[in-house]
Fold:
Amino acid sequence: VIKRAEDRELFKVAVESCGLKVPSSKIVNNLEELGEVSLPAVIRPAFTLGGHGGGFVSTRDELLRQVEIGLSESPISQVLVEESVRGWDEFELEVVRDRVDNVVIVCSIENLDPMGVHTGDSLTVAPQMTLSDEAYQELRDAAAAIIRAVGVECGGSNIQFARNRDTGELRVIEMNPRVSR
Structure:
């Protein structure tokens, strides 16, 4: 369960099995593997802390430069090139599930800063304050589906979402198979 929650590819499969989306992405180990990717994007070097070596890019030149930096900073020379959801709203749900499949949303958290500000640096409020009942229900339903698909049978998890305020588009950002706050 921990591996499925923390391995980006396994997590993507679990999320997509629920009919939900994660930001589109590509793992790259050298510039030749980069090929064509959609811009804007965010570069995330593997196994660095606090986003070190990563960044947002909008042009092909910025992409090549940032991937090169990320590859050199990553101890395994690997980066994730991911669809940018910078500027979208960020929400987190603290979710608990038991062995008989009771799922409880313990807390909703709204990041006051938009996506693009590291969650650990963002001001948050709990409970979330700006979602309509329908949009909040969409997040609750998604969180319940994700905790089941990942396989957490007993315990809590933190699930993070990005939501485009203008279009209502939703992306699942990550899941920590533990409560975070």
